[in-house]
Design goal:
Oligomer: single chain
Number of helices: 13
Strand order of the largest sheet: 2-1-5-4-3
Shape: rod-shaped
Length: about 450
C-alpha cells in the first residue's frame, strides 16, 4: 500500500512507542522503520516547531474522547525537504489502560503544490480582473473628461463669442444714449422758448404741431429714452452673466463669488424657468417655476469657476426636468381622476419650485450649496447609480448620463469636495454640494 501504515501506542504513564510501522517510512520520511520503533521521538522531530503544539493537542483530544485522529500538516525530512502529510488513525483503549492507534500517513505534497499553483493562478486572475476593471473605469473617466472638455470648450467659445458680438453694438447704443438724452433736453428747451416768445406761430407750424401731437411727444420722448437706457443696461447685464458663466479666461483656480455663478446660471436657464405653464388643479394654472434663493454670507471660494458653474447648470437643469415630468403627470392624472388627484396633491406643494440655499459649514472650512426641488424624486436603486457615467433615467435622445458624472468628478476629484443626493420617490430631491474655501 502507498504511504505509511503504523500502530502508535500511548501508555498510562505518558510514554509512547510505535509497535509497528511499515517500510513506506523510508520514501516519505527518509527514516528507517526499526530506528523509529526504537526511538519514537524521531517521528515527532519531523513536525516543524511552530506546528507541534497543535499536533500534540489533536493527539490528546483523540486519546481523551477516543475519537479518530486526523492531521494535515508539514514535515521536515533529515535532508531538509518540506513535505505535506495527511494522517488518520483510529484509537482503541486496551484492557490495561493503554491506547492503541491504527493509522495511515500519506504524502500529499503533489496535491498541495497543485492547490498552491491553482491559488496563485486564481490570485493572478483576480489581480488581472481588478486591473481590467480599473482600466475600464479610467477609460470611462477619460471619455467623460474628453466629452466634458469638448462640451465646455464649445459652449464656452459660443457663449463668449455671442457675448462679445452683442456687447459691441450694445455698448455703442448705451454710450450714445446719454448724449442723445442731453441733445433732446436741449431741443425741448428750445421748443419751450419758442412757445414762450412766439405763442401764436404761423398756421403751418400750428398744423404740424397738431398733427404730431407736440405736447404728448415732448412728454413721452424722455420716457422712451429712459426705457431704452433700462433695456440697454439689461442687455449689458445679460452679456456680463454670459461672460461670467463661460469663464474662458479663468483656467486656473482663483477666489470666486459662488452667488454670482448661481445667478448667471439661473439667468441662462431663465427661458426654461418661465416658459412652463402647467395645469395641476381644476381651473388653476401656474406659469413658470418659482425660484427661492436663501443665500448665506459666503466668502470668496477658491475653485475653477467655469467648471463649478457647469455643476450648477447640470443640477438645476435636472431639477427643471424633474419638475416638468412631475407636473405634466399631475396634469394628466387630474384630467382623469379629479377627486383622487386632489387628495394626493394635498400632500405636496402645488407650485413647482426650486430652492437654493448657501451657508458655511460648521467648521467654516467649506461652502455648502443645497439645491432642492419638489419634483418626482428617485428610488434607492437610482440614487446608487446616480453618478455613474452614461446612466440616465431620461428617454432616449434626451439624456446622455454624463451631467451628474461630470459634476461628481468636478466637485469630488478636482476640488476635494462632497456631492450627495437626498431623495425619496414623490418627495423631490436635494443635492448637497460642499466645496473647500481654500484648496
Amino acid at each position: 500500500m502507498p504511504g505509511v501504515i503504523y500502530q502508535f501506542q500511548l501508555r498510562p504513564d505518558g510514554s509512547f512507542c510505535f509497535p509497528y510501522i511499515s517500510s513506506g517510512l523510508r520514501e516519505i520520511y527518509e527514516l528507517e522503520p526499526q530506528a523509529v520503533q526504537n526511538n519514537a521521538q524521531l517521528m515527532f522531530a519531523t513536525v516543524p516547531p511552530e506546528d507541534r503544539e497543535h499536533f500534540n493537542e489533536l493527539i490528546g483530544v483523540s486519546a481523551q474522547q477516543l475519537q479518530p485522529w486526523r492531521w494535515e500538516g508539514r514535515c521536515m525530512t533529515p535532508s531538509g525537504k518540506i513535505k505535506w502529510i495527511q494522517g488518520a488513525a483510529r484509537p482503541e483503549k486496551l484492557a490495561n489502560g493503554e491506547i492503541l492507534w491504527d493509522g495511515l500517513l500519506m504524502d500529499i505534497s503533489d496535491r498541495k503544490e497543485a492547490e498552491e499553483a491553482l491559488r496563485r493562478s486564481e490570485e493572478k486572475l483576480r489581480q488581472k480582473a481588478s486591473e481590467l476593471q480599473a482600466t475600464l473605469l479610467e477609460l470611462q473617466r477619460t471619455q467623460t473628461q474628453l466629452i466634458q472638455n469638448e462640451k465646455m470648450s464649445s459652449l464656452g467659445q459660443m457663449v463668449a463669442g455671442v457675448a462679445h458680438e452683442i456687447n459691441n453694438p450694445v455698448s455703442f447704443i448705451y454710450g450714445n444714449l446719454i448724449p442723445a438724452s442731453d441733445y433732446l433736453q436741449d431741443l425741448l428747451e428750445l421748443i419751450e422758448l419758442y412757445q414762450k416768445h412766439y405763442p401764436e406761430p404761423v398756421p403751418a407750424i400750428q398744423q404740424l404741431a397738431a398733427a404730431i401731437d407736440l405736447d404728448f411727444l415732448t412728454g413721452d420722448l424722455p420716457k422712451m429714452l429712459g426705457s431704452m437706457k433700462v433695456g440697454a443696461e439689461r442687455i449689458r447685464e445679460i452679456v456680463l452673466s454670459l461672460r461670467n458663466f463661460s469663464r474662458l479666461d479663468e483656467a486656473e483656480m482663483k477666489p470666486v463669488d459662488l452667488h454670482e455663478g448661481l445667478d448667471s446660471t439661473l439667468l441662462i436657464l431663465q427661458h426654461r424657468l418661465h416658459s412652463q405653464t402647467v395645469t395641476w388643479e381644476k381651473n388653476s394654472r401656474h406659469s413658470g417655476i418659482e425660484i427661492i434663493k436663501e443665500y448665506g454670507n459666503l466668502p470668496l471660494v477658491e475653485c475653477y469657476a467655469g467648471q463649478i458653474n457647469q455643476v450648477f447648470m447640470n443640477i438645476i437643469g435636472n431639477a427643471i426636468d424633474s419638475l416638468e415630468s412631475r407636473f405634466a403627470i399631475d396634469a394628466l392624472e387630474e384630467a382623469e381622476e379629479q377627486g383622487e388627484k386632489r387628495a394626493r396633491l394635498s400632500k405636496f406643494s402645488s407650485t413647482p419650485l426650486i430652492r437654493i440655499r448657501t451657508y458655511l459649514s460648521s467648521d467654516t472650512c467649506r461652502a455648502v450649496i443645497r439645491i432642492s426641488d419638489n419634483g418626482l424624486g428617485m428610488t434607492e436603486d437610482v440614487k446608487m447609480r446616480l453618478f455613474d457615467p452614461f446612466f440616465t433615467t431620461k428617454p432616449v435622445g434626451k439624456g446622455t448620463g454624463l451631467g451628474l458624472a461630470i459634476a461628481y468628478q468636478i466637485v469630488v476629484e478636482k476640488h476635494g469636495g462632497v456631492l450627495k443626493c437626498i431623495s425619496t420617490p414623490g418627495s423631490g430631491a436635494e443635492f448637497c454640494i460642499e466645496i473647500p474655501i481654500c484648496q
